[in-house]
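Assemble and predict.
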Amino acid sequence: MIRKKECVAMLLAGGQGSRLYALTNNIAKPAVAFGAKYRIIDFPLSNCINSGIDTVGVLTQYEPLELNEYIGNGQPWDLDRTFGGVHILSPYQAKRKSSWFEGTANAIYQNMSFMKKYNPDYILVLSGDHIYKMNYAEMLRAHKATGADCTIAAIEVPLKEASRFGILNTREDGSIYEFEEKPKQPKSTLASMGIYIFTAEKLFKYLEEDDANPASSKDFGKDVLPAMLNAGERMFSYRFSGYWKDVGTISSLWESNMDLLGANPAFDVGDAEWKIHSRNPLAPPEYIGENADVENSMIALGCEIEGVVKNSVLASNVVVESGAVVRDAVIMAGTVVKAGATVEYSIVDENVTIEENAVVGESKSAGAGIAVLGRNITIAAGAKVKGGVILDKDYKGE
Amino acid sequence: MAHSTVGVIFSNIHDENIPELSRHRTMASVPFGGRYRLIDFALSNMVNAGITTVGIVTKNNYQSLIDHLGSGKEWDLARKDGGIILLPPYSDETDKPYTTRLEALMGITGFLTHRSEDYVVISDCDGIAHIDIGDIVRYHEEKGADITMVYHEESEPCESSYFITLNPDETGRLTGLKINPKIKGGKKYNLYVNIMVMSREFLINTIQNAVTRGFSSFGRDILTKNVDTLKIYGYEFKGYYAGVNSMEDYFRHSMELLRRDVRAELFGGRDIFTKVRDSAPSKYLDGSVIRNSLISDGCVVEGTVENCILFRGVKVGKGSVVRNSIIMQDSVIGSNVDLNCVITDKNVVIRDRRTLSGCETLPYFISKGRML
């Protein structure tokens, strides 16, 4: 018997995430912290294991160190397997040539031998940029039922945002007759989610053709999908209607964190039916002090809260000293907000020290935008960081 | 040093100290501190000292313990050589499972002889402390001791049904050792904290000798009888030590975790390893009031929580006031409930508008899975 996996997932995690500025100075976008204890990549990885897909290639390129360390042997996602499991696939040097991954399609093409090792019938292509819960097994069922060569997950977006996406124009049965990458005048509002299932043989054929084409930019959306459509392959959309958010910008990352709060959150990470797995911090339970005032917030293990925390998401081991105020903020692991300091409408990365009476950001209603502090920096006592400012170095004030 | 030490943990001894909590589980798997089991402290002390092989002696009710330990990976003890090795009671048709520590040790001679480490550290699960086991082994070597017993100076009487006090001289060598002595209130004494170090060879010889002579009690037949002939040393542990000898102790020591100095000593600067559940971070809703409380992950709090320990996955509904209480894993407290000095075991449900109150010396205990 030939050992095989019906479906192998390929997760594109090489993105630099340049619109996250200081937050991705030293880490790849999928490694960015989210929701007090997660990283963006926890969502596609958890979706895979919860959908019964236990073989995942993670394609890294930009600043892969922290991401590689985070994924490790895949044990937190139950992806440490003797056959299958999660594998980091970095660009490598080959006998004939060596190169960085040139585009999304090229990244997958360069790892053809990884996929072929598992004799897969289907390849699931994912990106590490989104927060969502999705059962890929249902999408695979739809792919088989329509007899498609390629199925693209798609979601309705507001008309005014449609030109930011790859737009699918479909017939009544869901089959795609036209694919427009970021159209100026969108004909429909059905956007590609960047989640594709291919019948493996078809994918391999088109990747080889794409590689041989010098005019191609080696991108799925721009090159491979249009090529398949032009050749008359069966391409279907798979409609998804749940929560799905690209967290590629400062404001969308902030909003998506806020979507976790409340009794009936827009996005529930505490869903026992669809657990989001992650590498857990080793920390004691959080301590909320005698004079603390905590409301409408999410707080992770190891935090010590003596001050005021409202409408905020605090990751593990964050300290908010007495008299400090944290409001409308996302604070990542290990950051210390000292006595009397204020953090408003901000995203603060890991291990930042905000000294006594410093002020970071301005209230949301002031309209100045979200202040961002990169990791490992210190904001001096009494210093004021204005709203909308992005800092990645120590700041002593003006 | 400690890499040449093998650990042995007794999971069941002292079960009778807190029968309410150990009815369905071993002392080792009694929940403590929001997300831990008592064994996590003994195991983490060993792992943090570089010990990579730990035999865990079990007797009964050890399902929950096996569930907690799994493969041992959370403690970095899923190893090719060694790791966590469960040692259930060994008995043939004529024997009954062990009743004493010495009989239990006889049952694990096979495990001990097959190891290659120089030293054995034996620990029970009744104590919560951050102890440097490497330092105890170093002390044991320096003194050239046969047995090193760890003690902590106490002034409150010990409520355990079996405890040992030590009298070391100025060099640390024991001149006396008493089992269950009468303790006068307020007088200081040296309580043995159920952690000892021996060379593996010495332990095996001692066990074999005990088998041929028909001894049954480690305390009476080996320690007290030989305090003059053997080199038994006491190692004083001067840090924070919480012995769980009664429900009152359990309650009091749990509440001590609300002190910054206690948390800093137990959790600061090193890791306490435990089973991971992948719970979401805890959520505090509009209207929640939290004061002086330790709250684990997966909780959702809408009411008022004061001076409490909340374990993983606890829900506190709107309008409820929970004070001075310990609420264990996945318990659900409805709305407009009033609790004071209550300990709920796991999966307890308290319906809307109930009022329950105990007192600090006699917390009101609600057993696992009950619905009120």
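The first strand of chain A starts at residue 7 and ends at 12.
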